[in-house]
Each structure stands twice: as C-alpha cells, then as structure tokens.
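Intended use. Records like the one below are meant for learning the mapping from a protein sequence to its folded structure. Do not use them to infer anything beyond what is encoded.
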Amino acid sequence: MNVLIDQAEESDHQPEHGSEQRRWQCHLENRGPGSRHVGPYADDQPDDSSGNAENECSEDGMMHRKRQRAESASDSLHAVTIADAGDMSRQTWLTPAREKASLFLPSLKVRVLGDLPVGYAITTVFVAVFVWLGLRPRPTRGPRLSPSFVLATVSSELQVLMLLLVGAPTVLAAAEGDLDSPFGAAILALAALTVVGITVSVMLAARTSGVLESALRAELAADVRLRRGIEPGDLMRVLLAPLRWRRRDVVRVKDVRYGPASGRANLLDVYRRRARSGPGPVLVHLHGGGFFSGVKSREARLLLERFASRGWVCVSANYRLRPAQFPDQVIDAKRVIAWLRTEGKAHGADPSEVLIVGGSAGGHIAMLCALTGNDSRFQPGFEHVDTRIAGAVSLYGYYGPASDGTLPSSPTDYVRPDAPPIMLVHGVQDPMVPLSHARTFAKNLRARSRSPVVWAELPGGLHTFDRFASIRSAGVAAGVEAFADRLVGNRADPFSPPASSNS
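Structure written out for the chain above:
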C-alpha cells in the first residue's frame, strides 16, 4: 500500500524547479529559532500570514502526514480486536496462541482461565478435604502421627475455625464477583457441601453430653445429670480455639519436681482455684504420646481448669519416655501419688481423695495405677506409701502391652475384683486405637470387677479429642466431673468401692 501511495504522489506531484527551491527555503526557515517543524507533530493549521511560500510548505507537510496515516492504517490490518464479554469498550490484542484457543473455546472469550477464581478454589478444596478427613479419618499405623491424622483431629474438634476458613473466602469471592461464572458457582457448591459437613460434625459433637449422661446413669445412678452446654467461662475458649484462653479464677503453678529423674521427666504442674476455700480432692492427669512423646501442658487443659475452678487441686505430670522401659512410666505415676500424700497439703489438696485421668498412653498408665494399688513391683523405694486411688478415667486409651519384658505390661493382665470404679471413654471414629480394642478391655473389666465400669462411645470422636477446647471436650469434662462427684466426698472411706455391682 505504501508503494501505491508513493507512486501516486510521485506521478501527481512532480515539482518544478521554482517550487522545489521554495520548499527547501521554507524548510530551512521553519527550522530556525521560534519556528514550527513541519511534520506529523506540527499544528494542523498553517499560519495564513506567511505568504504563498509558507502555504506551499504547509501543503507539503499535510501530504507528509497523509502518507504516515496511510502507513499506520496498513499496519493496523495485522491486529485483531475483540470486545470483552460484558464490556464492549474493552479491546484485547490477540497473540497467535490465544487466537487458536479462541477457536476451540469461543465461550471463554479469550480469558481461558479468567473465569476460574483460583485462590478461592484452592482454599475451598483444602477445607473440604479437611472436613472429610474429620468425618472419615484414615487409620494410622500405630501411635505415629501423620498429616491426615492431624488434619482430621483439627477439623473434628475446631468447627468454628473450619467455618471461618470456608466462610471468609466465600464472602471475599462474592464481593469481587468471582461467583458469577460457572466455575465460581461450582466452587460455591463445594463450599456449601463443606458447610453441611461441618454442621454434621457439630451435631455429632453436641451428642457427647447425652451419651455420657446415659452411660453414667446405667452404671452409677438414675439421677445423674450433666451440666449441659458450654459454660460461660469456657465459651471464649471454645470460640477462640486453638488459641489458649486461660480462666482468671484458676492459678497454675508450673514445673514442680516430684521425683529424682533428671531433666523435665519428673516435673508437674498444679492447678488450683485462686480463692482457696480449704483442702480439695485431687485429680491427677497423665498425657498421651505413645510412651515416646508428649508433655504435661498439651492435653485436657479445659478439664483441668474446670475441675480447679470447682475447688479441686489438679496435677498434670510428665513421666519418663522412651528409651525408658516399662514399668518406669507407671513408677513415675505412682511417685506423683506418693508426692501428693506428703506435699499435697501445701498446695491445698486433700491427698486422701485422688482421681487419676489419662489419655491414650496416659490412659494405659492410669489403668495400671488403678489396678495395682500398693503393688511393690511398681513402688521401688517407696513401698510403704499407700498408692490406692478413688477411681480412674481413661480417655481414648490404649490397653495392649507396652513392652516385651518378663513383667506383664497390659492393663488386662491386672484386672481384679476389687478394682476401683473406672470410666472408659472412646471415640467411635478413633483412627489410632480402634474402638474394638477398647470394647474388649471394657468387657473384660466388667466381667471381673465388682465396681462400676462406665463405658461410653462418643459419636464422631477421634483420638485426642481433649487436645483443644471444643464442644466435645467440654462435654467430656462435664461427664468426668459427674463421675468424680459420685466417687469423692460421698463416702467416709474413699478407698473402699461402692456397694453396687455389675451384672
């Protein structure tokens, strides 16, 4: 096209000698100081006072501008413009790759991934997997933690956090208009299903109090009633979990030494009511961790502080972990009881009334403490101390052997008729210690013990359900409290089992 224009101009505008001289003179004059350069950036209207020579020069500049506009029009034929969907004023310059994509995906209007809210999709899928694992956890291989186990534990107990993780991105996506496309609507549907799953999880957790109340009534008395719902003192702790929210009416004394083991193995924490009102009964808590991990401040914090606010003196103790071998862990637990007998009064405790609670491996140790009171094999060097207890509670406990040594290490090996009252609580969905394992132990214990054996299966409960302040852990704390109230303070001799028996 440029060639055609040039040929036309050369044929129509062959200058004569005089006019050519005048054009060069005008060109030199216009380059002087204060003059205007004739070209594509010069003013469109020439100065009429400049005479015929300047008019001819202006006509030459206009022809120059016409030539450049023709060149620009020729180049523009290689560009493709399309209107964006919903905004006809926007234009998109297509690359060859996008031109090909538009042939196969014309409905996407070039924005092949533009309608997919990637960030919202990733977040929603992640939370959906979270919630699904909480409802259908994958079994673990022994007491080892796995990513799926951690995710399942979090989602099954921290429903408020799950709602926040799925709700906040949805609101943000709606505000940005990301839900208007088909892809956005599909992700929104997944978010709605995730909320349904969270709702199911909440409903299962809310059944905890009713299940425990029924189990306690069946074994202890028909008039047992639990304090339903979440107490005002625990409400903020449940809403803010996994953040810690301490009760102001409870004092915690950290790292009190109770035994000779080096390091932190023989340290305990004492929880008591800030306003003392006389000696209170004692609750001892033993953490879980498969005998190789764990710490005294990790689990059952809601239970410990709830009991302390009621006037109990609560103790949460470390014990020796592997490579220490059985029965070192049981010996350490009995040292805690011996320490309470001699030092408990200094902390406001009544050492004659002791209830021991443990989770997982701590439940294993708690059962052995309950079943081996005053057994010299587990009290080397302090055989004279009375280590009998009023009762024991095992939460998601392990009841198999703890070692391959000559000394039996399973609680089943020590079941006896004069065992104290025992409460066993296990999650139906426990992926680490199968429900059938705990059922077998409960059946053996009920068959031989003359004391009550409370057995409760928590709907939707997994392992370590007391790790966080949650709806389920609050219900468990209320159930353990109702069990403890029936054992401690209602009889003159706390070491003699009640007269009731099992069928």
